[in-house]
Design brief:
Blueprint: H1 3-15, H2 20-27, H3 31-38, H4 47-57, H5 61-64, H6 75-80, H7 82-90, H8 101-116, H9 120-135, H10 143-159, H11 163-176, H12 180-196, H13 200-213, H14 223-242, H15 246-263, E1 267-271, E2 274-277, H16 279-292, H17 296-305, H18 317-332, H19 336-349, H20 358-370, H21 376-384
Helix pairs in contact: 2-3, 2-4, 7-9, 8-9, 9-10, 10-11, 10-12, 11-12, 12-13, 12-14, 13-14, 14-15, 14-16, 15-16, 16-17, 16-18, 17-18, 18-19, 18-20, 19-20, 19-21
Length: 389
């Protein structure tokens, strides 16, 4: 992070009449870290740290922030997705035989089972040919299918922390979409990309703009229209809690809940990737907000209140993310064995998904710091999530 952040923290701290030691005590951050931040001696500062400072200082997180909070892909992950990036750049120019919509649709459908199980190695192997064929389809007839495939590609690249290539794929998916309803799915993925990089203002602005643009009439709206709109408000809620704006969070959750209640059940509004929406999804995002604001008991209560039958897919990314919230709540309550067991369950469900989650590394890193010794299971998990220290 730059000296600009240090200047902002020091300025607000002084206006609040706080010493560095008092700010450290209020925020729960070490005095040495507060000093290093104010002196511009930290190369990066985590979004969680910025939020803790913002809460202590009574300002929004984005007031202090001067850059994102992205963790980029490992060299191994970059290599895995290299052919996909090259296929995006080629845009189907070198094909000798023109593909058909039926053939491209069949190839797309064949990838969905592996995508649903987060088998990224398998998806990355099949996606380049699909992209080249999709981009070579007739300009007008292939737009909707091409938009969906480009949107799926963008989502995968965000999931695998290759944000620049993801932004290109998602921008093209939005441009290719034949209508705003189709475009809303890649827009959701682009909002998520901003959020995953810690770009709070960009995420909030894009989500609110599109939520206003596609706001449905509840008496006539389809479940998919309601889900796309409600999902955008969940992102607004997510930004609000990270930006220390509880009023925005509660309002956004209320709007998202109204859409979920209208649908009345969990449903999938996009099969690639499997994106669920409904009352359970809203409850789980409320749990995520609770864990960020330091209410681990609330997270566990939400998890316990959701019947297994109400969650059709345990491997959908939002479901896996909720399990990480549960693990984090257990860590906050010093239930380390329960946290490890939860991480093991996630690994069993989605072994290729888990290493792409910095959140998992943060959780396990906290366990390592608080334990005098590690069990063999903890050491194995540390290797699985690629915990460096």
């Amino acid at each position: 992070m730059t000296a600009d952040l240090g200047d902002r923290v020091a300025s607000v701290r002084k206006r609040r009449g706080l010493s560095q030691r008092e700010l450290a005590e209020l925020s729960g951050i070490s005095l040495s870290l507060v000093k290093k931040i104010e002196q511009g001696q930290r190369g990066t500062v985590r979004l969680e740290t910025l939020r803790a400072l913002a809460v202590a200082l009574g300002v929004r997180t984005s007031t202090l922030q001067d850059q994102g909070d992205a963790e980029w892909a490992s060299a191994e992950t970059v290599d895995l997705w290299g052919p996909v990036r090259r296929a995006l750049a080629a845009r189907g120019d070198d094909l000798e035989e023109r593909p058909t919509i039926e053939g491209v649709r069949a190839s797309y459908q064949s990838l969905l089972p592996a995508l649903g199980r987060h088998l990224y190695s398998e998806v990355a192997a099949g996606l380049p040919a699909l992209l080249r064929d999709a981009c070579a389809l007739d300009e007008s007839e292939g737009r909707a299918l091409r938009s969906r495939i480009l949107g799926m590609t963008g989502w995968l690249l965000v999931q695998n922390r290759q944000f620049d290539s993801a932004a290109d794929a998602l921008a093209r998916a939005i441009d290719e979409a034949p209508d705003r309803g189709t475009a809303a799915a890649p827009v959701n993925a682009l909002v998520w990309s901003h959020l995953r990089q810690g770009q709070l203002r960009a995420a909030a602005d894009l989500a609110q703009q599109w939520a206003d643009d596609i706001e449905p009439r509840f008496s006539r709206a389809t479940p998919v229209q309601l889900a796309l709109w409600g999902r955008l408000w969940l992102y607004v809620a997510n930004v609000g809690v990270r930006d220390n704006s509880p009023g925005i969070t509660e309002d956004a959750l209320s709007l998202a809940r109204s859409a979920a209640d209208r649908i009345g059940r969990e449903m999938s509004y996009d099969p690639a990737p499997h994106r669920p929406y409904g009352p359970v999804t809203v409850a789980q995002i409320a749990g995520e907000c609770a864990v960020i604001t330091g209410r681990p008991d609330r997270v566990l209560a939400i998890a316990d209140s959701i019947p297994a039958a109400a969650v059709p897919s345990q491997t959908a990314a939002p479901r896996l993310r909720h399990r990480l919230d549960v693990a984090n709540a257990h860590v906050a309550l010093r239930n380390y064995s329960e946290a490890v067991a939860t991480l093991q369950d996630i690994r069993a469900l989605a072994p290729e998904w888990l290493p792409q989650q910095r959140y998992a590394r943060d959780i396990l890193g906290s366990i390592v710091r608080h334990r005098r010794t590690l069990t063999p299971e903890m050491r194995e998990l540390a290797d699985a999530v690629r915990l460096e220290y």
